[in-house]
Design brief:
Jelly Rolls, 4-stranded antiparallel β-sheet
């Protein structure tokens, strides 16, 4: 066997195993990871095509992302008042990694939920007196609304508590909600640091069009008619009837609770180049892995049909893998989690 033949065999593996634990340049220096970078012991030369053959990782995430924890609603003086920023209110959960400073108890935190009723318990703690602090959430009104879960309809509704006030949910696509989500200074919703009073606060994590309303079951955009509005009402009142409701009346939901963190995880890689394209204009998609297990289960993915990518790097010295969720946000896993990927590689002369 010649030296050229030995080099060819070493540099043309047909199966590659990628293990996130082998990242020595990125993961050890972060509290959690959605990307890992692997340096290959020997370069891969002249590959023709490749695909993700298998993949496994723990679904070590909560049911609700930490960037979707703000429930927005309108608190109006009349049943026909046009919504404006002054009427927009918010009940929010704190992110799951929040650590309060000594003596601070005015919060309800994102955590594992044992179904919609358990979520309602957390929401009612956040909405009740002492559940938040207007110094950190200027859109919060103490004990203004109450959430209820109906086990027969499997829906969550909210009810206004103050006489003479009318209530309606705000849509995830409402321009005023978008303005609040985009705030980085001024009267924005913030989280106190563990250093206590006087310390620098950080902004509540939020992503456009991913409000907690969607997770609770108020899924209307605020720019579309409700299914039971029949052409009447104001779409800005984002409930099934496009109506604002007086205190004491439950505001009807238009959908059902969604306690699925993400339907799938998209795996992107630097070595796929222009082989794929998403509707969000992302390239380099290696595979889309469906999440078919509950939170904290193990995802096990097996490619059933050939899905080879041919626009790939001709020399591969390292591989970067990036994981993103349904909203194109980083799919974060703790360093205790291990992601294992098996790639199948084909070469000119071996491609069927």
């Amino acid at each position: 066997m010649t030296i050229k033949q030995v080099i060819s065999r070493v540099n043309t593996p047909e199966r590659i195993i990628l293990n996130s634990n082998d990242d020595t340049t990125s993961n050890p220096f972060n509290a959690a990871f959605s990307t890992f970078i692997l340096q290959l012991p020997t370069p891969i030369l002249t590959p023709h095509s490749l695909q993700m053959n298998r993949c496994s990782f723990p679904a070590a995430t909560l049911q609700i992302p930490d960037y979707s924890l703000c429930f927005y609603y309108w608190r109006l003086p009349t049943a026909t008042t046009t919504p404006a920023l002054t009427y927009l209110k918010c009940v929010r959960l704190y992110p799951s990694n929040f650590l309060p400073y000594s003596g601070f108890t005015a919060y309800s935190k994102n955590r594992p939920f044992n179904g919609p009723a358990d979520l309602v318990t957390a929401l009612n703690v956040a909405a009740a007196a002492g559940g938040d602090d207007t110094n950190f959430n200027p859109l919060w009104v103490s004990a203004d609304i109450t959430f209820t879960y109906n086990s027969v309809t499997n829906q969550i509704t909210f009810t206004g508590n103050n006489s003479g006030i009318y209530y309606a949910p705000a849509g995830y696509n409402d321009p005023i909600v978008a303005t609040v989500i985009g705030l980085t200074s001024g009267s924005n919703i913030v989280i106190p640091t563990t250093n206590g009073a006087g310390a620098v606060n950080y902004v509540q994590p939020q992503v456009s069009q991913t409000t907690l309303n969607l997770r609770v079951g108020y899924a209307l955009s605020g720019t579309s008619p409700g299914s039971q509005s029949f052409g009447a009402g104001n779409p800005l009142y984002a409930d099934a009837t496009n109506t604002a409701y007086a205190n004491g009346t439950a505001v009807p939901a238009d959908s059902y609770p969604n306690l699925v963190y993400t339907n799938q995880v998209s795996f992107y890689t630097n070595i796929a180049e222009g082989s794929s394209l998403t509707s969000g204009n992302r390239h380099n998609l290696l595979a889309s892995v469906p999440i078919t297990v509950p939170s904290f289960g193990v995802v096990s993915y097996n490619q059933q049909n050939d899905a080879y990518l041919s626009k790939i790097s001709t020399t591969i010295n390292s591989v970067t893998i990036e994981m993103r969720d349904d909203y194109d946000q980083p799919y974060l896993l703790p360093d205790s989690a291990t992601v294992v990927i098996e790639l199948t590689v084909e070469y000119i002369g071996t491609k069927v």
